[in-house]
Amino acid sequence: MTAGFLDADDAENYLHDWKARIDRKAADTRAMSDRLADLRVTAADGNGIAEVTVDSAGVLTGVRFTDRVQRVAPEATARAVLAAHQAARRKAGEHTRQIIADTMGADSLAGRAIAERLEK
């Protein structure tokens, strides 16, 4: 390939293709970032006491209680919130991995690195 750089047209084509790949990666990264920023996942506990919403990183962004919360002990409410949070985090992880695969590619090194960082 080094010999190709002696030819100005080959060098120009190589640089043009390289820039196009970089531009595509940048666009894919922006699309992934936008979709992850918008992601919100809601899940409820199995007893219908609490419902929580998390973002793409699994960070709690909202909690809602049903009327059933008035009929259970505080410890049951705490367990319900934790169970709903765990369920929402699992769902958010699945959605996050799908967004990364859709935008960066399932085999992308950058995508895998981002997914690993978000799972911590």
Model description:
There is one protein chain. The protein has 120 residues and is of the alpha+beta class. It contains 3 helices and 3 strands. It has helices at residues 8-38, 74-104, 109-119; strands spanning 40-44, 50-55, 60-65. Strands 1-2-3 form a 3-stranded antiparallel β-sheet. β1 and β2 (50-55) form a beta hairpin. α1 (8-38) packs antiparallel against α2 (74-104) and α2 (74-104) runs antiparallel to α3. It is rod-shaped. The model has no long low-confidence stretch (mean pLDDT 89).
In short:
With 120 residues, the protein is α+β, with helices and mostly antiparallel strands. It has helices spanning 8-38, 74-104, 109-119; strands at 40-44, 50-55, 60-65. The model has no long low-confidence stretch (mean pLDDT 89).
Distance between the termini: 41 Å
**What's the quaternary structure here?**
single chain
Q: Which whole number gives the mean pLDDT?
A: 89
The strand line-up of the biggest sheet is 1-2-3
Low-pLDDT residue spans? none
How does the SSE layout of this entry go?
Layout: H1 8-38, E1 40-44, E2 50-55, E3 60-65, H2 74-104, H3 109-119
Antiparallel strand pairs: 1-2, 2-3
Please tag this protein with its features:
3 helices, rod-shaped, about 15% strand, about 120 residues, 3 strands
